[in-house]
Amino acid sequence: MQCVLVDTCGWVAVIEANLNIDKSLIECAGINQLAILPRVLEELEAIEGVNLMLPMLRKKSIVLDTPNNSGKHTDDQLFVVASENKFPILTVDTELKRRLSKANLPWIEVIGGTHLRYVR
Predict the structure, then answer these.
(1) Which of 31, 34, 75, 116 has its CA 20 to 30 A from that of 63?
(2) pLDDT < 50 stretches in the chain
(3) CB atoms within 10 A of CB 49
(4) Count of alpha carbons within 13 angstroms of residue 13, beta-carbon side
């Protein structure tokens, strides 16, 4: 099953852009199944003062196990899962996108604060 891995900053950008995540993902990538790592959930739960619609994210997402060989940094964990499964990552993190580009891995980003773009 093809999934889109959610990065903390990617989810925040989706919420700030007020995007319909299901519709936007189908339109840009033909995928609407989200996957999330426990560390990303922890980071999102630590953000205060913003309604990040976490109950909806949990309902729509498959929670994946953290890979044993991925280290403790969230970006490293996301990178390992993306590499092993060829899943795109929903992110706006410039450094993570640079790593993905060097490894020839896809990502999905919020652009112009209005829509998603699938970069392969």
Answers:
(1) 116
(2) none
(3) 4
(4) 20
Q: Output the pLDDT for position 14.
A: 96
Helix boundaries (H) for 17-73: 21-29, 38-46, 54-60
**Residue 116 near residue 19, CB atoms below 8 Å:** yes
Pairing label, strands 4-6, 34-36: parallel
Beta bridge partners of 62: 35
Q: How far is CA 108 from CA 3, 72, 92, 115, 118, in A?
A: 12, 23, 8, 10, 4
pLDDT at 68: 76
- The total domain count for the chain is 1
Range of the domain at 81: 4-119
Query: What sign does the dihedral 21-26-30-33 (CA atoms) show?
Result: positive
Please tell me the predicted confidence (pLDDT) of residue 70.
Answer: 66
- Strands 107-111 and 89-90, bridge-based pairing: parallel
The residues pairing with 110 across neighbouring beta strands, listed in sequence order, are 116
Distance between CA atoms of residues 52 and 30, nearest Å:
24
